[in-house]
Amino acid sequence: MPNELVYIIIPTYNEKESLPLLIEEILSVCKKARINEKILIIDDNSPDGTGEIARALQKKYASIYTYNRKSKKGLGSAYRFGFSKALQENAAFIFEIDADLSHNPRSIPRFLRAMQENDLVLGSRYIPHASVKNWNTVRQCISRAGIYYARKVLDIPFTDLTTGFRCIRASKLRTIDLASIQTEGYGFQIELVHLFHQKNLRIAEIPITFIERRSGKSKFSKQIAFEAFKKVIELRKNI
Ligand SMILES: Nc1nc2c(ncn2[C@@H]2O[C@H](COP(=O)(O)OP(=O)(O)OP(=O)(O)O)[C@@H](O)[C@H]2O)c(=O)[nH]1
Ligand SMILES: [Mg+2]
User: Fold this and answer.
1) Distances from the Cα of 139 to the Cαs of 73, 134, 148, 218, in angstroms?
2) Contact status, residue 131 vs residue 176, Cβ threshold 8 Å
3) 193, 168 in Cβ contact below 8 A?
4) Which of 97, 99, 115, 185 gives 15 a disulfide partner, CB atoms 3.0 to 4.6 angstroms apart?
5) Domains of the chain: residue spans and CATH
6) Distance from the CA of 23 to the center of ligand 2, in angstroms?
7) Helices marked H in 71-136 — which ranges?
8) What is each CA distance from 114 to 107, 169, 221, in whole angstroms?
9) By the 8 A CB rule, do 126 and 160 touch?
10) Between the CA of residue 138 and those of 104, 132, 134, 159, 220, what are the distances in Å?
11) How far is it, in rounded angstroms, from Cα 163 to Cα 145?
């Protein structure tokens, strides 16, 4: 797939330390694997100046674009915006990746190989050969319990419904009404998998090594968890 456009979306909020390192790593991986990449950084006017760093990276590298929003609007709306940009620009594959170095860009070629036979590939923390590093037990339990609940209620046979490292086939994303997704946090990630599953699209999981952020702060909150909890019930009602 040498000429197909691979669109990599990175939502950022206060990620000034990790963003430049992540970008260097993504560019190096794409160069080595001959991937035709476009990277879109969506920053919500981060108080720590991540937006300025993103703009400097855009000046330095031809494949980087930035979009700055005036205030913190949430992960879901950042991805909705990024998806519509990627579709407008005729991307073939769209990546979601966190900016906090939890996801290793070296896995990108592995995702693309798996995409040859799938429409959505999830980077799973919970299948054999995957691992989670530096997460405390409470955080792991919340993640696993939340996913278990969503799997059972929505009857989805995958282990990591909330992963933020995933690759999506653009032509299939086009068939989904993005405006209908209203959630902002983990609920957004669950809902996207649910919509692909409902349409009988091909979904696969590949193992990833997830490393908890070393710098910056998590945006995980009780509200985000509660939003996802409520959303799962709502989705169930509409099956
Ligand atoms: N643009 C934008 N990006 C966001 C927002 N909230 C989170 N992000 C970014 O989304 C990604 C995931 O957020 P994290 O805070 O790492 O959330 P998490 O990975 O679920 O939580 P941790 O495991 O504790 O790091 C990171 O790149 C964040 O900077 C937001 O409101 N707007
Ligand atoms: Mg994170």
Assistant:
1) 24, 10, 14, 11
2) no
3) no
4) 99
5) 5-237 (3.90.550.10)
6) 16
7) 75-88, 108-115
8) 11, 11, 32
9) yes
10) 23, 13, 12, 18, 13
11) 14
- The pocket of ion ligand 2, defined by CB under 5 A, consists of 98, 100, 102
SS3 91: coil
Q: Is the CB of 213 under 6 A from ligand 1?
A: yes
Side chain identity, residue 139: R
Confidence of residue 218 (pLDDT cuts 50, 70, 90): confident
What distance in Å separates the CA atoms of residue 75 and residue 98, rounded to the nearest whole number?
Answer: 10
**Can you give the pTM of this predicted structure?**
0.96
Task: Kindly report the backbone phi and psi dihedral angles of residue 35, in degrees, each rounded to the nearest multiple of 5, phi listed first.
Answer: -95, 135
Q: Which atom of ligand 1 is nearest to the CA of 213?
A: 25
The label of the residue with tokens 């086939």 reads: 169
User: pLDDT, tens digit, for every residue of 99-148?
Assistant: 999 999 999 999 999 999 999 999 999 999 999 999 989 989 999 999 99
